[in-house]
Amino acid sequence: MTDVFEITNKDLLGRTGKLYTPHGVVDTPTVMPVINPNLRLIEPKELKRYGAQMLITNSYIIYKSEKWHDRALKDGLHAMLGFDGPIMTDSGAFQLSVYGSVEVTNESIISFERDIGTDIGVPLDIPTPPDVPYERARQELDITLERLAAARGYSGRMMLAGPVQGSTYPDLREEAARRTYAMDFDIYPLGAVVPLMEAYRYRDLVDVVVRSKMGLGPAAPVHLFGAGHPMMLALAVALGCDLFDSAAYALYAKDGRYMTVDGTYHLDQLQHLPCSCPICSNYSVKELAELDEKTRTRLLAEHNLYATFAELKLIKQSIVDGDLMELVERRCRSHPKMLSGLKRMMDYSPYIEQFDPATKSTFFYLGPESCRRPEVIRHNSLLNNIQISGKALITTSRSVDRAGFDQVFYVKVPFGVYPDALGETYPIGQSENIDELECEARDTTLENVLQFIIEHNEAEFTFAYAPSWESPVISRIGEVANIALLE
């Protein structure tokens, strides 16, 4: 597995990387447009000009098709679709989730994927939907794991994906990921998450992704099945997902829906096209509306692809620049359910901190969620290494009288205490805050001050603060330190 995926840059749990396949190297993170052989809104060979490097199609549809089955075996999948880049094939698990059964076995579908020249094949896993009884989720997971264990016997030299299932039970997701990772697959799709995204259950999605990541090795390439809306890509990448697939660009277009990073609009509700892609630059809303349905659908699909891949480029640059968290916070404020996902992500900050780079370019305070970023946790954890004795001053003012103190510390929102020697280093020196002191940021900062004093109880502390810092937390600090209100 280490031979097929190379990580080039990291930020949070997100990373840019290179996935090596028989038909070329794929730069990640990326979205694979979904191609239905029977319904090609845009021909596969045209998709590269929008930014697509890799496609995904359904081997079960091809397997059951009188039109495509023999042709795929004779000419190969790439010739059949007219695409010379990497292609991944799903096994029919989607049809299994919709119809309850499929007319194929695990052995036959993997063998078929192998024989038609798929770059990355998927075994016939069972996509257990959200909220089913625990026993059903356990039983179906056990069947999936049995099929995964058998898959290597049929796959030949084809790259193989190991889907991680477990419904909405975090313990099952983590167990499934751990056991699947031990089988040494090439990529690890997280399955049965589409119902969560359709219901805007981003809080639950965060649990599924992070708990799955906890069971996988940190270098394992992760595919989030069915995720492709630009609104949620930054969050998913920040959680460590590398590959996505999207039929939404076409399905939304057929329904007259126009994708943006802030959500989806119906074309008949728009007066302006808030985009500068080639479609939006050459057509007005009125002109699109006057086109025949087939042409309009095609153009909307093109816009949706441009919007998706433009967001991916920004995400990649944000990882390189070290400001992915700022992008995630901005995107997650576009919808209350997305914001709920961000808040849940921050609950995992102690885990994320283990993998997050120690230095970056900036730290922008953008709201209460910024108080729980991994950088804040890391900063306060490292402060425990400082040895303090004698009289120590902690102050919110740089101009305070330092006479009579053996050591002096300052306060920075939302981190808390820092020694002067760290004032120019990341994250203290690169932190930008709003001018007004918000209650949440103030109280979080003071809680960190309080914890610092408690952790270093061998010293005698004085906390000198400006009136703008008045808070109920001050009285608690007064129980373990001297208090001085500055004029």
Automatic annotation (TrEMBL):
This protein's UniProt keywords: Glycosyltransferase, Metal-binding, Transferase, tRNA processing, Zinc
Any one GO cellular component localisation term in the record: cytoplasm
Catalytic residues as annotated in Swiss-Prot or TrEMBL: 90
Requisite cofactors: Zn(2+)
GO molecular function, one term: pentosyltransferase activity
One biological process term in Gene Ontology: tRNA wobble guanine modification
Amino acids binding substrate: 125, 192
Keyword Cytoplasm annotated: no
UniProt xrefs under InterPro entries: ArchSynthase1/Queuine_TRR, TGT-like_sf, TgtA, tRNA_ribo_trans-like
Cofactor-binding details, from the entry: Binds 1 zinc ion per subunit.
Enzyme Commission code(s) on record: 2.4.2.48
A Pfam family this chain is assigned to: TGT
Gene3D superfamilies with a match to the protein in the record: Queuine tRNA-ribosyltransferase-like
Highest taxon of source: Archaea
Top-level enzyme category: transferase
Entry function: Exchanges the guanine residue with 7-cyano-7-deazaguanine (preQ0) at position 15 in the dihydrouridine loop (D-loop) of archaeal tRNAs.
Name used for this protein in its record: tRNA-guanine(15) transglycosylase
Organism, scientific name: Methanocella paludicola (strain DSM 17711 / JCM 13418 / NBRC 101707 / SANAE)
Annotated gene: tgtA
